[in-house]
């Protein structure tokens, strides 16, 4: 199968090298989501913090004042992986790590699958166009 | 960590606004897929899949920015650098959709709002700066790092301003808009610094190993060997 012309920019690299790069990237992502995620800050992020401006928050519960977060409603789906943990697993390291690993694999599968399905198949449209013009 | 919410929840913006932004996001995504397909070959398709998975992973890594406040990568600038603006916006959107549907992070009714801010506005702002800065700055790894950093900071602040606009249009609470705007911009300037460092480190690493896989360098590769900070393999090929 011939590849697109711009591949020439980097010289002809074997397909195996691209596979090695992709695999390394996937492994790094799994490591970050599966292990490093346990060392992430548990403080509210920027948006959540601003949403709580004006309210008094004790133990993650709003006890008074007026703020954006008071209007927040329950998530409509929830599910076993809600809030990046696996319900039923008490060990938080394991729970967060496994949820992260599942998330990376799911995202890679959904995104990779979608992009692969809609990708351009090289040459064929142009070729059939030329043939059509000739006949 | 009982409750980890990274994105806009249900309820804080009224129904006309979330429905409106759902429509905006849906239309924009169709356009992004159509335009992105032009570049999407056998090589870029798996790369875009990897970029989405990587952004999902790094979004889990909240870093401290101020006392009591954390931040996390949004990813729009990173995606624009690696796979271009159109596919980049789709990558970030897929991450947000997976997070909302499977991880209860960001309301499902808030998907249009979150996609508009982080995937559309964030990526567009990042890409405009990338395009401008890569033209002005020296074509070295340092130039690429500075480009990535500055574009990231601006992109995060623009995404935060997206929320401010949405809140002005349909906030359901009675909090002063000026206060929300000032707090959002202030906090997200700090988060943008973190985003900039992560984005620059990631893109420079890919540019060292596989410069041909950095979309932003396709038309104008970095300077060839001989200059300090430049990379050697772009014109010579092979030696990664």
Structure description:
The complex is a heterodimer of chains A (135) and B (240). With 135 residues, chain A is mainly α. Chain A has helices spanning 15-34, 46-51, 92-118, 124-134, and strands at residues 55-58, 61-65. Mean pLDDT of chain A is 84; it is low at 1-10 and 124-135. Chain A has one domain (20-119). In chain B, α3 packs across α6. Chain B has one domain (15-236): Orthogonal Bundle (Arp2/3 complex 21 kDa subunit ARPC3). In chain B, β1 and β2 form a beta hairpin. In chain B, strands 1-2 form a two-stranded antiparallel ribbon. The model of chain B is unreliable at 226-240 (pLDDT under 50). Helices cover 66% and strands 3% of the residues of chain B. The interface between A and B is large, with 77 and 90 residues.
Defining key terms:
heterodimer, A: 135 residues, mainly alpha, 47% helix, disordered N terminus, B: Arp2/3 complex 21 kDa subunit ARPC3, two-stranded antiparallel ribbon, 2 strands, globular
| Gap from first CA to last CA of chain B | 42 Å
Tell me, rounded to a whole number, the average pLDDT of chain A.
84
Q: For the largest sheet of chain A, list the strands in their spatial order.
A: 1-2
Arrangement of strands in the largest sheet of chain B: 1-2
For the largest beta-sheet of chain B, the strand count, sense and barrel status come to: 2 strands, antiparallel
DSSP strand (E) fraction of chain B? under 5%
Helix content of chain B: 55-70%
Q: Can you tell me the number of structural domains of chain B?
A: 1
Summarize the structure.
By secondary structure, chain A is mainly alpha-helical. Helices cover 47% and strands 7% of the residues of chain A.
């Amino acid at each position: 199968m011939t590849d697109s012309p711009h591949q020439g920019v980097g010289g002809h690299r074997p397909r195996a090298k691209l596979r090695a790069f992709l695999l390394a990237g996937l492994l790094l992502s799994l490591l970050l989501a599966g292990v490093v995620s346990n060392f992430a800050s548990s403080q509210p992020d920027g948006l959540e913090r601003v949403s709580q401006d004006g309210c008094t928050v004790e133990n993650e519960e709003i006890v008074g004042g007026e703020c954006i977060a008071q209007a927040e409603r329950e998530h409509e789906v929830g599910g076993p992986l809600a809030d990046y943990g696996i319900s039923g697993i008490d060990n938080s390291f394991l729970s967060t790590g496994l949820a992260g690993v599942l998330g990376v694999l799911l995202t890679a599968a959904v995104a990779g699958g979608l992009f692969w399905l809609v990708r351009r198949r090289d040459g064929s449209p142009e070729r059939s166009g030329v043939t059509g013009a000739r006949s | 960590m009982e409750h980890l919410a990274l994105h806009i929840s249900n309820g804080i913006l009224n129904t006309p606004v979330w429905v409106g932004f759902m429509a905006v996001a849906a239309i924009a995504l169709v356009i992004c897929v159509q335009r992105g397909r032009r570049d999407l070959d056998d090589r870029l398709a798996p790369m875009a899949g990897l970029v989405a998975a990587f952004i999902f992973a790094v979004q889990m890594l909240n870093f401290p920015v101020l006392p009591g406040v954390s931040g996390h990568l949004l990813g729009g600038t990173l995606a624009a650098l690696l796979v271009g603006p159109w596919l980049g916006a789709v990558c970030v959107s897929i991450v947000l959709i997976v997070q909302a549907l499977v991880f209860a992070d960001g309301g499902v009714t808030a998907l249009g709002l979150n996609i508009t801010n982080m995937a559309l506005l964030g990526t567009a702002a990042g890409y405009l700066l990338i395009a401008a800065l890569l033209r002005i700055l020296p074509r070295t790894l340092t130039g690429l790092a500075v480009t990535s950093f500055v574009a990231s900071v601006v992109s995060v602040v623009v995404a935060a301003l997206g929320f401010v606009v949405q809140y002005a249009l349909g906030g359901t609470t009675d909090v002063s808009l000026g206060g929300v705007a000032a707090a959002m911009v202030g906090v997200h300037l700090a988060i943008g610094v973190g985003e900039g460092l992560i984005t620059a480190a990631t893109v420079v690493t890919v540019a060292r190993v596989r410069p041909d896989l950095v979309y932003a360098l396709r038309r104008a590769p970095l300077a060839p060997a001989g200059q300090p900070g430049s990379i050697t393999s772009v014109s010579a090929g092979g030696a990664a």
